[in-house]
Amino acid sequence: MENQYVDAHNVQIGVVYYPEHWDPSLWEEDIQLMKQTGVQVVRLAEFAWSRMEPSPGRYTFEWLDQALDLFAKYQIRVVLCTPTNTPPRWLSEMKPDILPVFANGGTHHPGVRGHRCYNSESLRDYGARIITQMTARYGDHPAVIGWQLDNEYWVIDCHCDTCNQRFREWVQEKYGTLENVNREWGTVVWSGEYSDWSQVGVPYGGSRHQNPSYLLDFARFQWDCIADFQREQIRVIRANCPGHWVTHNFHTYPQRLNLYQVGADLDVAAFDYYPNTAPDKQATGPYSGALSLDVTRGIKRRNFWIMEQLSGPPGCWFPTWRAPYPGFIRAFSWQAIARGADTVVHFRWRSAVAGAEQFWHGLIDQSNVPGRRFREFAELCGEVNALADKLQGTALVNEAAILLSHEHLEALRIQPQAEGYDYYENVKDYHRALTKLGIGCDVIEWTQALDGYKLVVAPSFYLLNEEVTTALERFAAAGGTVVVTSRSGVKHMNNQHVMLPLPGLLANCTGVNVEEYDAIGRTAMRVVDGEGRSYQGSQWCDVLSLHGAKAVLWYDEEFYKGTPAATVNRFGQGKVYYLGTHLDEVCLMRLFREIAEELGLMVMPDLPEGVQIAIRTGTTGSYLFVLNLSRDPQQVMMPDAYPSLLYETERGNVLSLAPYGVDILQLS
Fold this sequence. Notes:
By secondary structure, the protein is an alpha/beta fold. Helices cover 31% and strands 22% of the residues. The chain has 17 helices and 26 strands. It has a ten-stranded mixed β-sheet, sandwiched between helices. α11 (328-338) packs parallel to α12 (372-391) and α14 (423-436) crosses α17. Residues 610-666 form the Beta-galactosidase C-terminal domain. Pfam families: Glyco_hydro_42, Glyco_hydro_42C, Glyco_hydro_42M. Residues 17-386 form the Glycoside hydrolase family 42 N-terminal domain. It is an enzyme of class 3 (hydrolase).
């Protein structure tokens, strides 16, 4: 089967549309306006199970046929969704086992969304039926190019009977014997040893005071269940739609979900991106957003989709956000493209008039009169369509990476280390410092190959094994620079402590031992460098002894005043830094700048606050995106003059950007 739209990596702008929410008399008028505006792709049928199957085995696809035929008529591509996020009421009434059960015994009721247990045989059975019907019917439809699976997975912590049984089976398969379980979970503590397999089950009553090794495995079990749930859907789609690609729309990082495990079976990753519109978020929001985009790109280590992009102020189960400032919608869409999004799909075409998301505003308000936000969207469509051929096939090629682990995230959630010590928030700080320096940075899964990088940041490698340790040592020995932080090498992968001086397996390459630590939490700790400049540390202070490393920062107060706070160790041809405390942004930027300049990384140290850069490179050339993601006009000092793709003129060494201004410069 041939389909002219099978490529998931077209550079394009799209919208989310719910034809089932609107009178059919509006459909063609809407689609005509989409076409006129430059919309290339739409997402459909995400929550439409009850409209496609109003009762068991009675399928009513005529409305969707009509909508798809209209999109085909106007040559707009369609991504269809599997509707399993919202099982219909008839199904939950007939098969109540689909509803998740909370730790306290309560049931997640129908009529909302996400009311589905991933392990429910009924959900999997009836889900496979509706997906089979959809894929058989639309596998050859000229408008359909791909599939979004479910919607926004999250770890449910379901405690139903099926999950209880499957968890027991999972543990049996992993450990084989109860003796192994008792050893690997350390159940001798608090007399928690298992003497019969019937005693092994989900953590009824919640997780407070539960065994941390057990809880980490319960999270891993759920990751496996979600991946298996998704795999069953993919099998149906592959059978009936071999020319189509599949994705899932991840959301709201940090996710307890293991993004990399679930992403492994996808053709392309996708993210739902809602940058905060509040003025008081201007200093942090664009940088948190940049991290989210880099995390999404790292799921597959290639370009991705935005499946929902902010189109207006969200508001539903929380007070409505501020209206997007002029230029905001356009600028943050370009930010997504700059960081590797090929397609940006805006949520949604028109604001809803009914249901829970009435105040989650779309491009057009309920009045159905296009306004300022829509005109800005139309401008964006025109720009992206004009540059699509040049940007097609381009991608980011970075020489720095942050290594992210959902196992570390979960283990540190289970056992918080100090007041204010947050694994993902700390990752944000390292990423923000690099972004403010203009250093391109990938965010990849912590066990991935490090080929092609010069700088690797390894934050809080709390759980550690020999394989990852060896990979970091080889990377440094070959000339790379590694930055290791506090709370590294603390535990084995079973979430039990290593009986070695910290940083455990990393002591050899870091050249330090942790003699003692002080969980200072939100207290500020003064640290100084060799030139007497003062900075602040927080959260945690490792008191370090040197075993080959050299100190680069020292504590300047408390009983460990004068002892090293950060060190560097020559290891083979490279270097390994150890940060014993969480350093403030000024210190991190100084440190990363020195490392980057030594390694020959591209640095733009004088970027104004809120200005970000990124480079996409391909066979058509290299393109530097310069984005002012703030409400203030900014001037950016450029190393040279470059032609602008957006404005078709040469831009000088001083680049002036209006509030939320964007430019794209051709480097080669």
